[in-house]
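Researcher: I'd like a structural prediction for the single chain below. Treat it as a standalone chain; there are no partners to consider.
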Amino acid sequence: MRINDLRNAFISYFENEGHEHVHSSPLVPQNDPTLMFANSGMVQFKNVFTGLENRDYKRAVTAQKCIRAGGKHNDLENVGYTLRHHTFFEMLGNFSFGDYFKDDAINYAWKFITSDLAINKEKLCVTIYHDDEQAYVAWKKVAGLSDDRIIRISTKDNFWSMGETGPCGPCSEIFYDHGEKFTGKLPSEADETGDRFVEIWNLVFMQFEQLNSNERIDLPKPSIDTGMGIERIAAVMQGTNDNYQVDSIKEIINNSIDLTKSDDNKLISSHRVIADHLRSSCFLIADGVLPSNEGRGYVLRRIMRRAMRHVHLLQYKDTLMHKLVPTLMLNMKDAYPELLRAEVLIKETLKYEEEKFKNLLEKGITQLDSISQNLGPNDIFPGESAFKLYDTYGFPIDLTQDILKSKNISIDIESFNEKLEAQKELARKNWSGAGGAATDKIWFELNNELSNRTGQPIERIREDTDRDFYMSPSEAIEYGIIDNVFNKRPINSV
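Model: Treating it as a single chain, here is the predicted structure.
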């Protein structure tokens, strides 16, 4: 079953059970300034769960696009090197807002998996919070599981909370056994890590409200929040335990291999990074996020440049990312029409950023290789040198770390941070007392803003804004002060 078919099957199943199909919210949360990106299906319903918002339905089903690339949920560094880490993924979920509870949630999940998807019952086991007797009884009744396949977990892994206060409750997770040919033991056992037992669905039973660290009360209307990563369940349905082998991701990888003429299995991690980061980049641009040196735009640029770094590792000389967009569109445009609306912007942004990055990469790598040529595995790269690459050549510290990681060389990050902070302090001092305080503050902020937006070191920005400074169009583009020059004839009046 292909991902598109699986998504449709999930939504149709819960629609038939009286759930309202609510389309995915944008990746930029509209109701939670504390979140950088939507990272789960419940984000768009947060205010419903807390009682701040009412909807005209009590049951919902969604396929939510998610990004985990910063903050608490940050999978960026693992992407490409494991079978199931992504920056972009889809979360299938069904929700009850004070309507049904544990018994029905467990029944819906078990019926969908074992009847509609026809997954072998013998391949499944579940976890529950250690004192959740209601969930235990429900699993015995609905699924007839033996006690050894209902695993009690006493840690926070099976207890979900929205924060230090607010709605919370126990979880029940459904695991699929990929078989003895893979390593790993059952959840809760000493060697539970591995690729054999994979969580495919998490059922959250929101039945309490945490008032403070010591006080918890029952919610008047307990609710349900579930999440099933579509890539994980698609892997099960397609006979693999590798998310990167499911159809929509594998086709991007195959396209990358064909275009780069690089089918060396030793480089498969690079193709995985490119495929995953392409998905993130396209969806973020479609939702209005553009590359920059701050906030969400910075995370996007970091994702894009990490992918482009792996294009470089494949020794592909041309720009690649924008050429892969049609393959992604083919699989995802129907479910997410915002991709189609933004297709031109996506392609042009990817191409422009990759062209700019290639110039940066060539200059930075030359300097990096020169500095690190006498270093070997387990050596420490000087923080001062890393700062020079950042300050003089605009080479991001995370990119330096990524390149050196492949050589098993670490960076004296403490020294780097000291140099960075000293630079900031010097900038502050240079702008104190140089005229009227109000004017100084404006110019200080303006220079910092120009540095953030152009990527130019603050020292250069201060020097260039302290005099008359003229640039040609091509110099302005390279500097980062403009994105493009349009050569259009004026419209003649009639």
